[in-house]
Amino acid sequence: MPKTPRSRKPAKPRPNAGTRRPRHHDHSYKQLFSHPEMVRDLLTGFVHERWVASVDLGSLEAVKASFITDDFREREDDVIWRVRWADGWLYVYILIEFQSRVDAFMGVRIANYVSLLYQDLLARQALTDDDLLPPVLPIVLYNGESRWSAPTDLHTLIEAVPGGLEAYRPHWAYLLLDEGAIIGNADYPLEVRNLAVALFQLEKARDEPTWLAVYARLVEVLDSQALDSLKRAFGRWIYKSFIRRKRPGIRLPDIDDFHEVHVMLQQRVEQWNAEIREQGRLEGRLEGRTEGRQENQRSTALAMLQRTALDEATIAELTGLSVEEVRALRNGPSHH
């Protein structure tokens, strides 16, 4: 019998996609988004949709949902917020998922999380005035080095079958915020005054002077807004996680005050820069010694070429030069 024609296969998942659980941001990073100011700036700076202008950002309220999943320990500190429409009490739930690695099947996970949130809302009878479920905005915040390559809609991950069955593939999308793609993109704000921007710029800074300058500006913004709790959260994340990723193996004293962290970082960066300069001097001396030794080898080989009948291979063996280097000396102008 002839084989039944097969439809086009979906793209195979990238490595790590379904073989092992993706690595998430650390707990202190998530804690930054337990502050309404961070969620407010995330929405106003990076969600370019008209509905954002219709919500009362002053009503942002953290939601503690009770999820029971296979990875319960990772779900118990979910970042979920609700915000009120400016003209009514219809809540928009905002579910933020943190990723450090591309997950090809993130669409499946997001669909699962949102379904669990809806189940929790049903159990608590937290419905709209029309006895409907409220809308949910799922956000995936990604800070990996490579650009995000996974589909952002669940239906893309499901085999397309002809004959009408494809109509039942669920369309469940999430909003992707890829920090690496955002930095330098003119479509997004660049000012550190947006707290989410400051966080992304810190994450993607390539050298100490750059992130220290961003951090100093962030201190000014937080001071001007008297955000003491968020200041402590930033200080805790920078001190206990960020610095240790930038400088693996570093030993730091126990402090938790935001301003002390800033002063300590200034001192540390000056120390690190001095170490880099000293390392450069040491490497320069080593390079100088190497160049001097190579010049002596060339001088010795040149003298042998001028004063002896030794062949190139023998001179190379005696001096440590390659046969090609000896031949180049023989053919050079200084030999004639």
Automatic annotation (TrEMBL):
Any single biological process term in GO: DNA recombination
Coiled-coil stretches noted in the UniProt entry, renumbered to this chain: none
InterPro entries recorded: Rpn/YhgA-like_nuclease (IPR051699), Transposase_31 (IPR006842)
A Pfam family reported for this protein in Swiss-Prot or TrEMBL: Transposase_31
Disordered: annotated span: 1-26
Residue span, Transposase (putative) YhgA-like domain: 24-225
Basic residues bias: start-end ranges: 1-12
GO MF term list: double-stranded DNA endonuclease activity
Protein name listed in UniProt: Transposase
Species, as recorded: Allochromatium palmeri
